[in-house]
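Listing S7. Sequence submitted for prediction.
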Amino acid sequence: MAERPDPSPATLTDRIAAELSAFLTDRAGLLTEVSADLSVLAEAARAAVLTGGKRLRPTFAYWGWRCVQPAGAAGEAELVRAAAGLELLHACALVHDDVMDSSDTRRGQPAAHVRFGEFHHERGWPGSGRSFGAAGAILLGDLLLSWSEELFTAAIGCLPRDRARAATAEFDLMRTEVVAGQFLDMLAQARGAFDPDEALRVVEYKTSKYTVQRPLLLGAGAAGGSAELVEVLSAYGLLIGEAFQLRDDLLGVFGDPSQTGKPAGDDLREGKRTLLVALAHQAADPSQRALLQDGIGDPALTADGVARLREVLRQTGAPERVEQRISERAAAAARCLAGGSLQPAAAQALLQLAQAAAHRTS
């Protein structure tokens, strides 16, 4: 049988979107069988999952599989379906993250807790719309987490038992590590320190492992990848995951809101203890340090206040140092791939993903 051509990024994204849409349509039917009132929950789930998003985690899972298996190999459809479950997990994390950070928007649209709050307000119900919105978002996130396991388990169980077990082990670690990373992030904000090592530890667990490394290893495990391949992909995943998050940190402060889908300066208002602000604090003079300490984490920070903090960051040279680190991580990831015995198409795709992660604008 001739090998099927490799999918374009758009084609792969379409396959993942189709799996998600079909699954959510089916589960919406189950909800509305319970009560028509649950249609608002089903609609919120579709909005949280299907509106925007880069589908990075299932994409990395697919290319982890393709490091071992040729295009169209037996089990690929099941792997893509299982990988789509990672998007449900990610949607859960985003819904809960927006509640914790009091973020009003996500991907240019109202965040889930805002949608639920507006639903309450429009009906003129008594009580707090804000509390209703937060409660609705927590339940939505819980539902998405449950559905992620349901979709993943049903699909991965169709693969040979040893390969399904290897992929499931990565999925289990992925869920634990992202919660660990989120909690470490919360601790860093609560402590209020400007510690580069702490910032990088949060990046490793909240992004590097969760976004790149574990999805890659999940796909490779499902494909029957060797221990040598796991070592190569592990190193690549940590490097590119860090580059991706450091780019995200820069965009969170200096990005164009029309492209990022999030108001510029929100990370500063939320008090995110990123490597960017930690490096700036290290290099700042006393007056600059005072501005950073007073402004970062101030929820009432105005647009002028954001502009002043941006200027301090620039003056300390922190953005340039972060840019340099991103470039170094992307180059090191490319060297990892060059030393591994990957399928050529997969190696090329991972190189392209590395460049996209390091140099994206949204």
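Caption to Listing S7: primary sequence and predicted structure tokens for the chain studied. The first helix runs from residue 9 to 34. DSSP finds 16 helices and two strands in the chain.
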